[in-house]
Amino acid sequence: MTDDRAGVPPLAEQTLQMLAVRDRRDRAAFGKLFDHYAPRLKAMAMRGGASAALAEDIVQDVMLTIWRKADQYDPARAPVSAWIFRIARNRQIDIARRNRRPEPELLVSAAEADAPDEGSAGDMLALAEESEALRAALRALSPEQRAVIESAYLGDLTHREIHAETGLPLGTIKSRIRLALERLRHELKDLRP
Amino acid sequence: MSPPVTSSVSPSAPGPMPGPISHHLPEAILAAYAGGSLGYAFELVVAAHVSLCDECRARLGAHEAAGGAVLEEVGAAALSPDLRSRLLGALADEAPSHAAPQAPRRDGPFPAPVVAALGGRAPRWRSLTGGAKQCILEDEAAGSVRLLSIPPGAAMPEHGHGGLELTLVLQGAYRDAGGRYGAGDVAVEEDDDGHQPVAEPGETCICLAAADAPLRFRGIGPRLAQRFFRI
After folding, report:
1. Which of residues 65 through 84 in chain B touch A, CB cutoff 8 A?
2. Contact yes or no for A93/B31 (Cβ under 8 A)
3. With CB atoms 3.0 to 4.6 Å apart as the test, which of A99, A161, B209, B212 could cross-link to A157 if both were Cys?
4. Do B90 and A110 touch (CB under 8 A)?
């Protein structure tokens, strides 16, 4: 990874590693993803009330799910941290509960996802940029505001306790994902006349 | 009044994707789904609506991006020394990719998460009053979720509820004091609004309705019906 932060924002290291896992089943890249995310996933699980031992079981489960479902990863629609966050949330709930967590339909099958065009490459870069901005915004919040955001996304707040105004710039990132979805719908229409 | 043209012969009958969706999920519900605090009943409505609505899919994606930012910043817990080698060892035992079990698929008016909740079977409808029918998917103290089927032109018995109710239209349309709700629209009712949906003429209206408190009908007769029909 070159250090060219002054120019066009490079894809985050983790995004490149995730693409290497998806496209080449690259075990070394997967090891690096483990080194970055496993300690964070353990911290997330323990914040959710898991013991250290259960948290490690969850980490193992989540990392294996990342390996197995890598072909579903689309960097134009989700930053890698968001995709891993979603998997962690789903697996944690599935492990804790009798009912499987209901998940939205997948938009695209593995076979259709692995032919990205230039448009989706642009979407991917734009989303990576927004994702970095979101992280910076989180760091810039006051400690009190930040604690509320963390509580909300780590599952400590009910829908009644969550206020619509998060203090995070979610509008831009939503618009980016919306554009990527429109592009994908268009491509799917071409694929399925 | 002459009977309406059935949608099956209408040349403009839409495919599985409904028309424009004008009633969406509230922000706090999407954030709570992303964060995992919502509970099964509402999760099912969110997953079903997002399956039909790209606007809410993108909004949920934004909340998950915020969750991803929190994951990046949450800190690091020390791992057992052998966790990494155990996990990388487990990869060696993995079958080649694309061996994932077949995910459920959309079936008629039912998005895939609803098909999964039905266990892949057709709904087992139970009759209510006035020709309406229901199929309970889950009924727990923490929340309940059911499919409702309302004949064209029929009204659901007036009911209130102690908490939040989310109703997603899967087929047909209905009207109540809050407006018109067509396929894909989700209605949000808070704390005993006492609404009375009436199905529009045309197709049978099928809805997915979730509440965090038991539904109840108003009046003594319906109250008995409620005990009998578990609504």
Report:
1. 65-80, 83-84
2. no
3. A161
4. no
